[in-house]
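**User:** My hope is that you can spare some time for a protein that puzzles me. As I understand it, each token names a local backbone shape. I would be glad if you read both lines and explained how they fit together. The protein I mean follows directly.
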Amino acid sequence: MGQYSIETGLYQERTILKDTYFTPPFNVVEIREDKTNPLMEVMIMSSSPGFFNLDDYKIEINVKTNTLLNLQTQSYHRVYDTPDGARQEMKVIIEEDAYFSHVPHPSVPHKGAIFESKNNINLAKNSVLIWGEILACGRKLNGESFAFTKYSSLTEIYREGKLFYKDNLYLKPSAVDFKTLGQYETFTYQANLVSIDPFHSAKDRMVFISTVLDEEEDILFGVSQLSEDACALRVLGNSGEQLFSALKKIQKQLDKHANALRKKEIELKLV
């Protein structure tokens, strides 16, 4: 069983890695270039090319009060032929006035793949979350469109202990033809993005997200308002790189918003 955990801390108003633990195949590496940047950027590196049969990964993230964390992945998440299944469980705690941003590379389930993912995210009243997910139909260039056995991804987001958002992505190609009308149709990738930010208007973010995606070709998308400070995005496309690049562009700007807000607070404290 592979696992890693991350706990942030605060040192001179900058986020640091207070505590981290990992086992093979993982490695946790800070990649922040500007050390004066309040936002800490961390990459999860893996010596494994993907999920194999009976792989079971456990992840724990604790973003402490007043800290900011951008968690990145190294490459595409491939799920190989897994007759007995593979799974991943991720638990995230985002404390008061903390920021967590995570848009991983696309997941690619190969022929015969069985995969289950569970994400449990707990936010305080003034926590900020940027959470993304991209799923491929499989290795379509190898003729493996929707050739996987089952793919399940359950994400539950709680605010102050109450369920706020739940997304249950469950695909079983043997039961549903995902190439038909009302399903994926001609598209082969889907992406989701959730933004929860009590410091910025959800409507303003929806306009920004729509502006970014309007520049992309051959996609369909919709942005929904969840509350006054939260919105959710769904996208269908035919290129994992295209969707990943678009979501990263959105994430980068939202990260800047968080940084600007925090830098202003730091400057006020130093005056």
About this structure: The longest helix spans residues 240-270. The chain has a mean pLDDT of 93. Helices lie at 202-214, 240-270. The chain has one domain: 2-270.
